[in-house]
Design a protein that fits this description.
The protein is mostly beta strands. The protein has two helices and eleven strands; from the N terminus they run ββββαββββββαβ. About 10% of the residues lie in helices and about 35% in strands. The two termini are about 25 Å apart.
């Protein structure tokens, strides 16, 4: 079995308005199986973890949680979906977002946040395209242009 690659591709993204706030959209096609981006942030101490109210926490093991709240963590803009185009791949206590299928330029990136997050933070029901297939937000405009750096 071949080894998986854990180096994020050199993809360009745009942060735009989506139906749930800001979302991360790809500016180019991403092939199935590609590592899209790494979810990065500050590693929290046990005391910081107990005191935080951040919605951007990512548990990478029993004693490692990162807070991805800083805006330099481009992956923080990836929204939840019950039918996601990405998945999380934890390797060596690091979180990578990998394409579950081929993703076309202009698509919003998404992964399933999981039941615990959903119950704690997503009030009023899920608004993803699978759960509420609407026409989508009107007047979508790019608000931030970003390019992921290798190793991010």
């Amino acid at each position: 079995m071949p080894r998986k690659n854990y180096t994020p591709g050199d993809f360009e993204f745009a942060v735009k308005r989506s139906r749930t706030g800001l979302g991360l959209f790809t500016k180019q096609d991403i092939p199935r199986g590609a590592v899209v981006i790494e979810y990065i942030g500050k590693t929290l101490t046990a005391e910081e973890y107990a005191a935080t109210n951040s919605k951007y926490l990512f548990e990478l093991g029993p004693k490692k949680t990162i807070d991805g709240a800083p805006r330099w963590n481009t992956a923080r803009y990836i929204n939840h979906s019950c039918a996601p185009n990405c998945t999380i791949d934890v390797h060596n206590r690091r979180a990578y977002i990998r394409a579950r299928r081929a993703i076309t330029a202009g698509e919003e990136l998404s992964y399933n946040y999981g039941k615990e997050y959903f119950e704690a933070y997503i009030n009023g029901g899920c608004r993803c395209l699978k759960c509420q297939p609407l026409d989508g937000p009107k007047g979508v405009k790019s608000t931030i242009q970003v390019k992921a750096k290798k190793g991010q």
